[in-house]
Amino acid sequence: MTIWNAIILGLVQGITEFLPVSSSGHLSIIDNLFKLSMPEEGHMFFDVLVHLGTLISVCVVYWGDIVDMFFEVLGFVNLGPAAGERRRRYPAARQFFMIVLATLPLFLVLPIKDRLETLYYNNYFIGIALVLTGCMLYVSDRMIAGKKNSNSMTIFDAIIIGLCQCVATIPGLSRSGTTITAGIATGLRRDYAVKFSFLLSIPAVLGANILNLVDAIQAGVNLANVPAYLIGMIAAMVSGIAAISLLKYIADRGRFGGFAYYCWVVGVLSIILTMIF
């Protein structure tokens, strides 16, 4: 793997992981159509590192929220007052428990994980999934704005968002787009739906990396490519921070309609190019 390949793949991973346009869909198109793929030897280790880069980017942007959740969970469990009072005094702890609840449905995906991964190599399917992602974003823009935040979202809301995250493990569907749309549909404020989606990515990406790390080590690592791998990870981290900041800005001031049109164009082009080549 060249350094330029690593940078391009890292940038694509970081940008598309958080913008609602599907990182798996874009990487599939780059891999299958343009042959700018990961190296055959050690590709799983590179995949782990670029996902680690995106994980770091979330932690950087939301470090204050992560610290608040950590200390409030300690207070909630060890020192907290009566249940009704806890809800008001520990909003970050409540947010943490909602993230845990929304993460649990991912265990439903484990038995079919390998089957889902085979779809990554089907560009017709990827194109259709991107078109569906665009439709989902288009609909989310037309939903009535909600008012719920970490204090008022319910267990039912968290479970619905978690189930939608399960669906988004299908290659070509955007995880962030799906969970943000689900959050808006359950009545979350648009800006909080974005925040909850990104915080929800932390256990999802961390869990996936732990599962893949064992396979990556067993598959072997080409030490000569490690410098390129690390540069790709840094590219994913930097572009991930930029993508999160951009989507936060859009959520505060606008809507996601532009991403819907983008997904439609890329999805249709993917299908056309697959038919031609």
Description of the molecule:
- The protein is mainly α.
- It has one domain (3-276).
- It has helices at residues 3-18, 23-32, 43-61, 63-79, 83-89, 91-103, 113-118, 123-140, 155-167, 175-185, 190-219, 226-253, 257-276.
- α1 (3-18) crosses α3.
- It starts with a helix and ends with a helix.
- The mean pLDDT is 87.
> What is Rg?
19 Å
Task: Write down how many β-strands occur, each being a DSSP E stretch of 2 or more residues.
Answer: 0
Quote the beta fraction: under 5%
- Overall body shape: globular
Oligomeric state: single chain
Give the termini separation.
Answer: 24 Å
Coarse structural class: mainly alpha
Helix content, binned percent: over 70%
Largest sheet: none
What is the count of helical runs? 13
What integer is the average pLDDT?
Answer: 87
How many structural domains can be distinguished in the coordinates? 1
Order of helices and strands: HHHHHHHHHHHHH
Low-confidence stretches at least 5 residues in length (pLDDT < 50)? none
